[in-house]
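> example.struct
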């Protein structure tokens, strides 16, 4: 019976320790183009802050956590841009009119510049992350739908298979940066756990940083440390971790609600800035695209609803 209780206690502590928002060591961000068929009606207004996005913002209550999320998003946008440019090259070789697709990619490049300029230490870093993730997700979906309209679902999937894996020095550099930041973030969290537990031996931190112990192994060792404490101390640790989990969740929820409340206004401001940039470049197709988006944004705000004016009417020589 004692052994069963001990196992249960370890499991509970594993969950509690994870509540300190240790960052997943996979540097990939879920904002890359989805292979799923979760297309949405462009007349519908999607919630810019879904459960997944809110969960991602939990670690953004520190500047290092914010830097991780912004870098992950920057990498995802860069990867989708590279894929999109490859798709356009293929379609051009097949004599398709790719002007609509190129306009989408041009706006995506403006979005990339915005995430590159984002400050992880700024008070509005969560808002910026939510805004740009929403824009990047919508642009990627528009690119996919436009390509699908040109080619048909089967042929589009064939091209996607050909460019599934992209290897570039730029993406590899992003991966290295993200992994480095994640290691630093988790190191800081492990130190905090040491403080909560009341341990002075920091050997686990060194083992984690030099790669001799994985994050999962460190968590298990921390749980064993806690389990060796007296019952009163274990309860105290558990209570502290539970309180922090609730506080982190409430903070993320509050940030998400605040971001969602003023999302439409910020979206309008972002589009106006992009229109100014587009005017400076003289890219007529991009200018037209953003003007249509501004008009649709205003119609949506007024409750009139409209499509986004980004029709895929560019089929070339009957391919």
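> example.seq
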């Amino acid at each position: 019976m004692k052994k069963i209780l001990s196992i249960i206690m370890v499991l509970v502590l594993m969950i509690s320790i994870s509540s300190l928002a240790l960052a997943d060591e996979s540097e990939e961000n879920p904002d890359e183009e989805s292979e799923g068929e979760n297309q949405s009606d462009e007349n519908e207004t999607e919630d810019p802050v879904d459960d997944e996005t809110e969960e991602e913002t939990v670690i953004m209550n520190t500047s290092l956590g914010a830097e991780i999320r912004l870098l992950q998003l920057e990498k995802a946008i860069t990867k989708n841009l590279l894929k999109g440019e490859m798709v356009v090259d293929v379609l051009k070789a097949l004599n398709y009119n790719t002007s609509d697709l190129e306009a989408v990619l041009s706006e995506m490049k403006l979005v990339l510049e915005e995430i590159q300029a984002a400050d992880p230490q700024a008070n509005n870093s969560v808002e910026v992350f939510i805004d740009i993730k929403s824009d990047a997700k919508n642009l990627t979906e528009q690119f996919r739908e436009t390509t699908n309209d040109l080619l048909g679902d089967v042929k589009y999937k064939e091209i996607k298979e050909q460019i599934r894996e992209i290897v570039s020095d730029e993406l590899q550099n992003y991966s290295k940066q993200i992994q480095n930041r994640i290691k630093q973030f988790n190191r800081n969290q492990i130190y905090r756990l040491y403080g909560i537990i009341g341990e002075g031996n920091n050997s686990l931190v060194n083992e984690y940083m030099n790669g001799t112990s994985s994050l999962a192994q460190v968590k298990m060792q921390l749980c064993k440390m806690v389990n060796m404490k007296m019952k009163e101390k274990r309860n105290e640790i558990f209570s502290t971790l539970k309180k922090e989990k609730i506080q982190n969740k409430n903070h993320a929820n509050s940030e998400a609600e605040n971001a969602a409340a003023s999302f439409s206004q910020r979206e309008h401001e972002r589009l106006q800035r992009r229109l100014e940039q587009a005017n400076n470049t003289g890219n007529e197709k991009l200018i037209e695209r953003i003007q249509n988006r501004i008009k649709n944004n205003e119609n949506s705000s007024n409750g009139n609803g409209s499509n986004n004016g980004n029709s895929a009417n560019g089929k070339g020589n009957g391919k």
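> remarks
DSSP finds twelve helices and no strands in the chain.
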